[in-house]
Amino acid sequence: MTTIRLVSIRVANTPDLEQLAVLFDKYRQFYEQTPNIVLAKHFIAERLNKRDSVILVAENEAEKLIGFCQIYPSFCSVIADKIGILYDLFVDTSARNTGAGRALMLAAHEYAANNNLARLDLTTAKNNANAQALYESLGWVRDEVFYAYSKQLK
Question: Each residue of 31-40: pLDDT tens digit?
């Protein structure tokens, strides 16, 4: 059995596109979307080119990307301040239980603090107990006050 060692967490850049698109496609499949590497590559390329999100990547000692998280800048009217929406967190199945997810979350916390964000928000599937345990172990608090709604437009 090969041991995967996490080497670094860093901000993704254009040369990461191929590996990142593969991870993003796997992330979408985790949420029961049909595999579509072309869509994944286009979406990630657009984020990288427009710089309308920050993508943090976990890289192993072989310089292979093993996970990522994506933060979208936003605002909260109630507190009248900038916030971040941590929309995506994914670690490849081959690198689970290596601490990569925790390291990505801690890097997201650091990014938010360094960029003067008042808060990070996220949502996750109700049945994603592993992710919920990670978030709660890092001090995230489940919202018991508000309901989340969405409306499909396409």
Answer: 999 999 999 9
